[in-house]
Give the backbone structure.
Amino acid sequence: MAHALWRAVARKGDLAVDATAGNGWDTAYLAELVLGDAREDPGLVLAFDVQQSALLATRRRVDERFEQEKASRVRLVLDSHANLQEYVAREVDTINTHDGGVGVICFNLGYLPGKDSDKSVATKTESTVAAVRAAVFSLRPGGVCTVVGYVGHEGGAEETSAVEALTRTLDPKQFTATTHLVVNRENCPRLIAVHRKEN
């Protein structure tokens, strides 16, 4: 469902942000949506993760899918997503983005998927809430921020609830915030979406 929301708003030439790169699947999908011609609508993707192994997996996935020039416009950031605002501000100033903001920002909370991943390294409520707050105010008009919250692991339900609480405080004249969940499945992930209105 998150991909459908991204497709509905993404434009070639946008700046897009994967705030939790993980294994790179969403990073590569965002790149498909926003990377255009290098001269007319170049576009850029920023992908954050605190684990070098995640960024290495993301780089491999991107390099397999795109030719070198486009792959170079997927920038990997070894840092917490709580600091995304400073990176976004720098990139918005250097590329010709639509309306001076980010088209799509996505979060997948929790830990890095995979049988060999370190499950003790997971997103934390405080930094996630700070990152989501920065993300929604970085959106261009018409842009969307999606957050997939996993409630089945320790701390996951609290983190997801904190993000939902933040989105409830957003000015309805500027933003539309929604939550989507499967109601007949236990511990189902929740999709939280925030759209910035066009005017």
The chain has a mean pLDDT of 90. DSSP finds seven helices and seven strands in the chain. The chain has one domain: 2-196. Residues 2-196 form a domain with the Rossmann fold fold (CATH 3.40.50.150).
